[in-house]
Design brief:
alpha+beta, Butyryl-CoA Dehydrogenase, subunit A, domain 3, three-stranded antiparallel beta sheet, 4 helices, elongated
Length: about 150
């Protein structure tokens, strides 16, 4: 099952998704020089969405005998990861607005390197879907030759 390149891509996507749970996504330095971080655990919805992405990627690894279902679930996972990127962006904006409405001034803010992990997840899932599709096409072409 790990012999296929798409299984490796799915494993890397799951690892990147699990890494989003632990690393900070956004950092803000407030007016009183305190530092505030936003990570996936700051928002319940984002955390559950990344858990679902990781679980779906791991399940897809073991569906190597049913390539059609594996492909469909990988495409579903691609849409979930796009939704996670968009949701993460809006949740960071909401977090920044909540800080400002509570009377705190944000002097500087920046995205951390871990904020780009969802894009990496998307790339790995796309490469996995492409590999699954190529395998399915190869099997169909071999069936025609028989």
């Amino acid at each position: 099952m790990i012999q296929r390149i798409q299984s490796l891509y799915l494993l890397l996507a799951a690892a990147a998704g699990a890494a989003t749970w632990f690393f900070d996504i956004w950092k803000a330095v407030l007016g009183d020089n305190t530092v505030t971080y936003f990570n996936a655990q700051s928002s319940y919805l984002i955390f559950v969405l990344y858990m679902l992405i990781v679980a779906l990627a791991l399940v897809c690894i073991f569906l190597f005998k049913n390539r059609k279902l594996q492909f469909r679930l990988t495409v579903l996972n691609i849409f979930l990861s796009i939704g996670a990127i968009v949701l993460q962006y809006f949740k960071v904006l909401d977090f920044a607005n909540a800080l400002q409405t509570s009377g705190k001034t944000i002097t500087t803010s920046s995205y951390q390197p871990a904020a780009f992990l969802p894009i990496l997840i998307l790339v790995f899932l796309f490469l996995a879907a492409r590999g699954i599709y190529k395998d399915e096409r190869l099997i169909k072409s071999l069936d025609r030759l028989r």
